Queue: 2 jobs
Job 1
Amino acid sequence: MSFNEKFNYYRETFEAFAEEYFSKTDEWDLTLTEAVKYSFFAGGKRIRPVLMLSVSDLLGVSFGKVLPFALALECIHTYSLIHDDLPAMDNDDYRRGRLTSHKVFGEAEAILAGDALLNLAFSILADECVKNPFDKTARAMQIIADNAGISGMIKGQSLDISSEKKNIADEKILYEIEENKTAKMIISAVTVPAILAGKDEDIFKSFGLKLGIQFQIVDDILDVTGNKASLGKSTGKDEQSGKLTYVSLFGLDRAKERAEEIRSECKKILKKTDNCDFLKDFVDYLSSRVN
Ligand code: GRG
């Protein structure tokens, strides 16, 4: 299978599982259910579930076992996008090619849709712990919680907002933002299968960190060079709001060079693992988004 075929296979496997899961949620309040599904099925790339399924394939973890974790992670990711788009945060009108949740359902409903997705994630993970009361399941849930929370994505978002407000231009803080806001969720995607398989997490953790930083720098570059039609969201926002990004600190050319350097660093880490062609191609796929 080519990289694209495999990517689509993982993506469709995830999509079918998510659709089946959400089809059983009709008893929920109608407007809120609609708001939750509107964002969840808005056509995101599903990068985190795809990565989780590919590492599971690599390590021999069954999809049946890992899919609830992928669903929980994508619920957390979707909630973070809904909240990030709110007027109190990035104040965006478009996401995933359509109007943002608060533009369609109003702010209160958008906040609740995000809250519902976050709680749903932990409900799904708790169900897994109840069904499989083993250390590995609880440890996988712990990693997802820590990486999404106050020592992870939320910390990164908070640093991002405060650096913007205080006009901070500091490389150390930039790295902390990239690491926490973006990379920690990617780290969860690639380490959960290793935990479930009882394999060494460290290689996947360091790969996830590098890949996440590459992902964020590519996102910063696309905010300058990309367009709304292909990205599905407004561009030029970082400069407008005075955001601290790799591009704002070092310029576009250096950001492109750095993305290339990190691409090689990701590949170097993968040399320590067998049969990881899909992950190597994934690194190239990320880079290709800006080339
Ligand atoms: C609100 C707690 C809280 C956190 C928000 C996700 C986020 C943190 C901010 C969004 C802005 C941003 C640039 C985040 C970095 C991660 C990133 C590039 C997210 C977009 O992820 P994609 O490209 O989106 O995977 P799709 O729509 O494809 O799922």
Note: The chain has a mean pLDDT of 94.
Job 2
Amino acid sequence: MAYRVTLLPGDGIGPEVAQAMQKCIDATGVKIEWDEQMVGEPAIKKYNTPLPDHVLDSVRKNKIAIKGPIVTPIGTGFRSVNVALRQALDLYACVRPVKYYEGTKSISKKLDLVIFRENTEDLYAGIEFELGTESCDKIIKEISALSPKKIRKDSAISIKPISVFGSRRIVKAAFEYAVKNNRRKVTAVHKANIMKFTDGLFLRTAQEVAEEYKGKIEFQDVIVDNMCMQLVQKPELYDVLVLPNLYGDIVSDLCAGMAGGLGIAPGANIGDEAALFEPVHGSAPKYAGQNKVNPTATILSGVLMLKHIGEAQAADRLERAVSAVLKEGKDVTYDLKTDRDDPTAVGTREMAQAIIARL
Ligand code: NAD
């Protein structure tokens, strides 16, 4: 029986990388019925919204979706489709594997990490009060009455909620992943020495969850600034990392850079009801329609999707094919060449064809 997967090509370079991924997945022989849906700029043109309700219905029904990047229009009143999708489907775990592939510009051959970023809380919850508004003045007065610390009157305020519920489920997801994927250690990353109540709660909850896995999976915690230095110097010490939203956002891009850049960084947003796979990079509008950009990040997101639906063998074959093309370094896009102006660089479609040829 074929799997039904919602395909969201997105906009900018999205349709090109999505098509490359789709061809690679189809070439593995796994039967997928693609339920293609318009989001982003084409959807704004047709439906006057970047995320029509029927798209959400499709993801809810199929439970699995894979998407290309989508532009976040500035100043149009449309909110980010990516944030909207995560919130509407409660995709609370942003999962990003970071791995060394020979032939890439990785800073370390020992990179093999999986990052679990909490996706729904923290300073990203969107609870903000704008400077000069009545609500902002009110909040400042309230806080001044409740706390000995004073806030300057000309401040804007963002709220950082971190709950036991949100922390527990992301830490649990990281440990469950570690068990299922033969990983040895989970590291919780925080700033609990300074943010004693919010990050302190995250850390305490992580320690409690870790007790449930004692003897099976090792646990440690590291303060986020120290983590950044250690990752650059000794990435081999780490395995699965679990972080609140903001640190997760920053550390995962740091790690994508360490592994050789956005062109090869895949990702997944996973909840209890649905999972959405996507490259880490954005829609790079300046390269749209040029058959130029690297499809690897989206193809590797497809590998994550295959693993998620239980097609581990096909996933491994596709990953090995990607790895062989990267290692050879011939049929690769400009960003993977030593000289970015190298005339032998191939296009998005040609790189996907080279990967398919090695399946
Ligand atoms: P971007 O990732 O789109 O591009 C930054 C630069 O990275 C590009 O100019 C290019 O040089 C390089 N790059 C990105 N993807 C590449 C690839 N596959 N191959 C080779 N090089 C690649 O980031 P941006 O310019 O900050 O964002 C553009 C738009 O994308 C914005 O509207 C942003 O909001 C949106 N965005 C969407 C997502 C998403 O859909 N998940 C993620 C990030 C940004």
Note: The pocket of nicotinamide-adenine-dinucleotide is lined by residues 17, 69-72, 82, 262-263, 278, 281-284, 286, 293-294, 297, 335 (CB under 6 Å).
